[in-house]
Amino acid sequence: MALPKYAYFQGSIVPYSEAKVGVMTHALNYGTAVFGGVRGYWNEQEEELFIFRPTDHFTRLLNSCKMMLMEVDGTVDSLIQSTIELIQKEGHRQDVYLRPLVYNSDEIIGVKLHDLNADLTMFSVPFDKYVSNDTSAHVTFSSWRRIDDNMIPARGKIAGAYVNTAFIKTDAVRAGFDEALVLTEDGHISEGSAENVFMIRDGVLYTPPVSDNILEGITRRSAMEIAREEFGLEVVERQIDRTEVYMCEEFFMTGTAAQITAVTKVDHRPIGEGEMGPITAKLRDYFQDVVRGKVEKYRQWNHPVWEKIVV
Ligand code: PMP
To answer: Which single residue of 7, 89, 234, 288 has CA 20 to 30 Å from 111?
Structure first.
């Protein structure tokens, strides 16, 4: 992956090569950082780059900071403004991925959350697919369990917690699968390695509740709203058993990176007919139009980058 030209670092935009931290940095040693993952979508007709739901993303980032006792210099609005400046400076006129990261920057020894300083950094890179097989993914049930809210809060995007994701993803990929589904300690489906999940049974959409150690996904929220509002579907948040997936009609995963990924096989068993089902296909198409700013009703989710040149 090509490196960005710039990064937001210690309060200003600097060449990427200058955005460096020392090896004693607390976050590097102990995983005490929180991050976000935001997509920007290029709309060819309007020659505009739309950031998808930045208010939701930065609100979640600041909530993660709150959990971690991190004080960050900035509000949701100022973070959006810095994002726009950074992307304009980078000159992106294509689909991008933005990574905001708040990290404990003190260079000290000692595992704790209190009495530390936090710094914000951001960078953006061109981005395409995350799950390469996003129309017919084959997933497995991971032998790893999802971290519990009382171990490391799953609803925060906490850097150290993503070692759990890394174990889940690598073991699945090395075993020949595209992705993995992860169970909670009590054996209910929580989510994918970095995606929320939806199952369709008898035409009803089911997704695990926020109390099953999921990240409260912004794509999940968007898919639920679109399913209800645009397709009149019933969407139910409830616990999902592992074997329900073996007999459901459709299954898909949602995430900023994964977007809406159709899952068509689980542990060598076909889901439904073994190909993307009609509800998943419909939601995927509609979602693509929404993120590119093509649906008037959801334009408030699309934040333009180039409307006003600021750099
Ligand atoms: N769960 C986990 C563990 C994730 O890392 C992500 C990606 N941010 C998601 C779910 C999906 O969340 P979102 O739709 O907000 O990207």
So the answer is: 7
Instruction: Give CA–CA dist 100/7, Å, rounded.
Output: 10
Q: Tell me, what DSSP letter sits at residue 4?
A: P
Q: Which of 74, 124, 73, 53 is nearest to 95 (CA)?
A: 124
Q: Residue of the nearest CA to atom 9 in ligand 1?
A: 195
**Domains identified in the chain and CATH numbers:** 6-126 (3.30.470.10), 137-291 (3.20.10.10)
Which residues form ligand 1's pocket by a CB distance below 6 Å? 37, 165, 191, 194-196, 215, 217-220, 254-256
Catalytic residues, which ones? 157
Backbone angles phi, psi at 183, to 5 degrees: -95, 155
CA atoms within 13 A on the CB side of 121: 18
Q: What does the pLDDT look like over 145-194, one tens digit per residue?
A: 999 999 999 999 999 999 999 999 999 999 999 999 999 999 999 999 99
